[in-house]
Design a protein that fits this description.
- By secondary structure, the chain is α+β, with helices and mostly antiparallel strands.
- It has a domain of about 120 residues.
- The protein has 11 helices and 10 strands.
- It has a 6-stranded antiparallel beta sheet with strand order 2-3-4-5-7-10. A two-stranded parallel sheet has the order 1-6.
- Helix 1 runs antiparallel to helix 5.
- The longest helix is centred in the C-terminal third of the chain and has 69 residues.
- The N terminus is likely disordered.
Amino acid sequence: MPIPHGRPRPASRLVAAIATIASLAPMLTGAASGAESPPAPDSGLVATLSRLEGAAVTLDQALLAAVDGSIEVSTARADLDAARAALRRERGAFDPELFGETSRSSSDAPTASFFAGAQVLKTDETAGSFGARWRLRWGTELTASLDAVRRETNSTYASLNPEYDAGGRLSLRQPLLRGLGGSARVGLTAAERGFEAAQARFDDVTLVVRATVEGAYWDLYAAGRDWAVQSLSRDRAAALVEETSLRAQAGLVGPGQVANTRVFLAEQEQALLDRLEALDAASDRLGTLVGLRPAGDARRFLTADEPDSAHAVPDEEASVTRALAANLELHASERALAALRAHASAAGRDALPQLDLFGTLGGAGLAGEGRDIILAFGAEPETLRTATTGDLGESIDQVLRRTYPNWTIGLSFTLPLGGRRAGGERDRLRAEVARAEHQLEGRRRALADQVRTLCRELANGQKRLAAARDGVSASQEQVRIGLLEYRAGSTTAFELVRLSADLAAAQQRHSQALVRSARAASELRRLTANGYTGKEMGQ
C-alpha cells in the first residue's frame, strides 16, 4: 500500500533521530559515543573553566597580600608594639636617675637679741643639691646626694662670710618582707610575659590569616570547579532536551519525557546561576581577606594553582605532641598565665607586714672667708678669728674625704590591722590564676582533639580522593550506558536525568575531596606552628 505524499516514512524518521542523537552524544556523556572507557574526572572541566572570565592569582600571591593587608595582622602588630613599649616602660623603672635643684633666697629679719649681730639681720643664700637614685630589681633603693649652701649675712658675729656648708649622704633602704624580690619587679615580670604573649599572638594571627586565606583560596578553586561541573550539566540537559524533542517528533517517546527533560534543564539553569553567585561570593571573600580587588575590568579572582592531591600521612601522637609544645595560641595563653602568677606571687608577699632595713653613710664640710670678730664684753675688747678658711670646693672636698663623718642604721616596721585589703587582693589573684589554669587545660584538650581530627582527615584523604574518582568514573559509565539504553528504548528520559544529576554530584564530591585534604594540611600547619611540612611527623 503506498504511503501518502508528504508524510515521512517511520524508518526515515528513525534514521534522522539516530543521526541527531549521535551528533549530540558527546555533550551528553562528555566523550565520543561508544567510547570503551569513561573519561577522566577532569575531562571537559578545563575547557569549560577557560571560558570563565576573571583575574588569575596564585596561592603565594594571595598569602603575601594577605599578610601585608590583613586587618587582623595589623591589629596584632599594634598590640605587639604596645606590649614592647610597656616592657620598655617597666624596665625604665629600674634605670638610675639623676636629680638636682638650685635656689637663691634672701631675707631681712628684725632681731631683739644682742647676739644676732645686727638690728635687722639680712641673710642671702644660694643653695644647690645634686645626686642620683637607683631602684634595684630586688626592691633595694639607693640614693647618693650632695648638698651645698653659700650664705652671706650682715651679722657682726658671723665668723665666716661668705660661709660654705656642704653635706653628702649615701642612703639605702632594703625591704625584708613586703616589697622584696618578685613583688618589687612584678610590673616588669608581667610586662615581659605580656610581650612574649603578644609576640606569640602576632605569630599565631599571621598563621591564622595564612591558613584562612589558603582555605578561602581552595574554596574559590572548588567553587570554580562546581561552576564548571554545573555548566557541563546544563549543557547536557540542553542536549537531552533537544534529543528528546527529536525523538518525540519521531514518535519514539511521549511528551511526558520531553517535559521531564525541560524541568531538568530549568533546574540546571537555576543551579548554574546559584553556582556563579557562589563563585563570586568566594572571590569576594578572598579579596576581603587579602585586601585587594581584581585589577582592570575583571569581575572576580580565579585560582591559578591546584591543591596537592598527595599529602603525607602524619603520625597522630607525634602531631599532638608537637602541637602541645609549639602551638602559638597555647604559648600566648601560657605567657598570660605566667603574668598572672607573677602578680599573685607578689600579692602574697605584699600581704606580709612591712619591715625595711635602712641606713645612711655621709659626711659634712665647712669653709668660708674668715673675718675678725670683736667682743667688747670686758674691760678690753677681744678679737676672735676662725681657723676655717676656703671656698666651696674646700667644703665639698671635706665631704668626699669624710673629714666629719656621720652614719645611721635602723629598721622600720608597719603592720596593717586586719590585713583585709592585701589579703583580699592576694586571694582574688589566686582565683584568677586557677581560672586561667583551667582554661589553659581546656585549650590543650581542644587542641589535641583538633590535631587528631586533622590527622585522620589526611590519613583518609587519599582513600577519599580515590573513592571520589571512582565515583565520577562510575557515574560517567552509568550515563554512557543509560544513553545507550535510552536510544534502545529500554529506559526513559527521567532515568537519564537522574543519572546526569548523579554525575554532577559525583564530580562535585571529587572537588570537595581535593579541597578537604588541602584545607586539613593548612590547618595542621597552623596548629603545629609549621611543624607539619608534608613529611610525616616525627621523621
